[in-house]
Automatic annotation (TrEMBL):
Catalysis performed (reactions): L-seryl-[protein] + ATP = O-phospho-L-seryl-[protein] + ADP + H(+); L-threonyl-[protein] + ATP = O-phospho-L-threonyl-[protein] + ADP + H(+)
Entry's EC annotation: 2.7.11.1
Coiled coil, from the record: none
Source organism: Aegilops tauschii subsp. strangulata (Goatgrass)
Protein name as it appears in the record: non-specific serine/threonine protein kinase
GO molecular function ontology, one term from the record: ATP binding
Length: 317
């Protein structure tokens, strides 16, 4: 598969076109994955997730037309920073928007399964878009509201606990997918995995944004998997990171999914963590992204090679 920058003729509007080679999909038995990905795209309606505008086929390819994000990959922005790390306010902002995107996906019964900086795109205004759902798992979800009981002590202190909205995909998956350094332990061991694997990946992402590398990377795949299953989580003392950030990472990188933060009441536990104290969740879309040491450079038509319009477009998909 490949992704191309395309323009709607006569409009000047730019879009991203994901082109999937039919022969490759058939040879690798990936047709069902493409159908699921297309179905997932059609469900999405959220500012931090892509919109599927249309899909069509050519004789050789299946094509999906989605939003073009001129900020490029979060991975590229991170790679350009001094020491390849973000300051904590930037890491907090990006992590918070990822939490909101994952919470929405989980509400729809979607386990993302491929969170990593390469799959987080940046819009022109600096906000995120989670992309690439070819590894995602679609199941059912039963959103529900939990009302917290008010104890007499709490009532006297006038501390109000609003109801919590909880929604988790209900069917565990057993398939082995993901990107090596971001894979959760329960995927490696073959235990059925739930949406808690996305919260593990969030912990790895936060670590990478703050420390410039992932915590369990080994010299090869086997060593990386061994580290994920057995190596102690350590925080390099050479890079100053707040206690709250370390505590959140530690909570997200619990090997036992049932004790992992986010596994019991979904995103609520994570959103209420002290690391996110400065985030006003309902208005996160209105926040200005913190300034990066090396600012985002927007990409556009000028930076792309010219391609002739493709002939032979046939039926919709």
């Amino acid at each position: 598969q490949s992704v191309h920058l395309v323009e709607l003729q006569g409009s000047g509007e730019l879009f991203a076109m994901k082109a999937m080679d039919k022969s490759v999909m058939l040879n690798r038995n990936k047709v069902h994955r493409a159908i699921i990905e297309r179905e997932i795209y059609s469900l999405l309606d959220h500012p931090f997730l892509p919109t599927l505008y249309t899909s069509f086929q050519t004789p050789t390819h299946v094509c999906l037309i989605t939003d073009f994000c001129p900020g490029g990959e979060l991975f590229a922005a991170l790679d350009k920073q001094p020491l390849k790390i973000f300051r904590e306010d930037s890491a907090r902002f990006y992590a918070a928007e990822v939490v909101i995107g994952l919470e929405y996906l989980h509400c729809l019964g979607i386990i993302y399964r491929d969170l990593k900086p390469e799959n987080i795109l940046l819009q022109a205004d600096g906000h995120v878009v989670l992309t690439d759902f070819d590894l995602s798992f679609l199941t059912s979800s039963k959103p529900h509201v939990i009302k917290h009981s008010t104890s007499l002590k709490r009532r006297r202190s006038q501390e109000f606990m609003p109801p919590s909205f909880v929604s988790d995909p209900s069917t565990p998956s057993n398939s082995f997918v993901g990107t090596e350094e971001y894979i959760a332990p329960e995927v490696i061991t073959g235990a059925g995995h739930t949406s808690a694997i996305d919260w593990w990946a969030l912990g790895i992402l936060l670590y990478e944004m703050l420390y410039g590398r992932t915590p369990f990377r080994g010299k090869n795949r086997k060593k990386t998997f061994y580290n994920i299953l057995h190596k102690d989580l350590t925080f390099p003392s050479s890079i100053p990171v707040s206690l709250e950030a370390k505590q959140l990472i530690h909570g997200l990188l619990q090997r036992d999914p049932s004790s992992r933060i986010g596994s019991n009441t979904g995103a609520n536990d994570i959103k209420e963590h002290p690391f996110f104290e400065d985030i006003y969740w309902p208005l996160i879309r209105c926040m200005s992204p913190p300034e990066l040491d090396v600012p985002l450079k927007l990409i556009g038509k000028e930076s792309q090679p010219k391609v002739k319009p493709e002939e032979g477009v046939i039926d919709t998909f």
